[in-house]
Design brief:
mainly alpha; 3 helical TM bundles of succinate and fumarate reductases; 5 helices; about 80% helix
């Protein structure tokens, strides 16, 4: 039989008391960065197709990719690539059974965030 008091109870009380954790936030951002890199990938594919199509199409694609919008997308995609890579390495370490304690997992999350920014800056300087 249906619960007659169902309308009097909140549907999701955990949303009001849940405190986001470093491991959940970093895991969510690994998924977001994986999907966000598709934009840069599509821009690069467009650039290659335009190069094969002709000089007019290439000039148009090249002007978009080298504009402030293209530079911003490529910068953020560089960060997303490093972040996603370090997130994948962290998951490989977890799959091996290491770093599963709360303190170690949170430390690995912080290292992942700091390393992704550091490697992005390094990539911009070197490349």
């Amino acid at each position: 039989m249906a619960d007659v008091n169902r309308g009097n109870r909140p549907l999701s009380p955990h949303l009001t008391i849940y405190r986001p954790q470093m491991t959940s936030i970093t895991s969510i951002f690994v998924r977001i960065t994986g999907n966000a890199m598709l934009l840069a990938g599509l821009m690069i594919v467009w650039w290659f197709v335009a190069a094969a199509t002709g000089p007019d199409a290439f000039a148009r694609a090249h002007s978009v990719i080298t504009s402030w919008f293209g530079d911003l997308v490529m910068l953020l995609s560089t960060w997303a690539l490093w972040y996603h890579l370090f997130g994948g390495l962290r998951h490989l370490i977890w799959d091996a059974g290491f770093g599963l304690e709360v303190e170690q997992a949170e430390t690995m999350g912080m290292i992942m965030v700091i390393a992704s920014f550091a490697m992005t800056i390094f990539t911009i300087i070197v490349v």
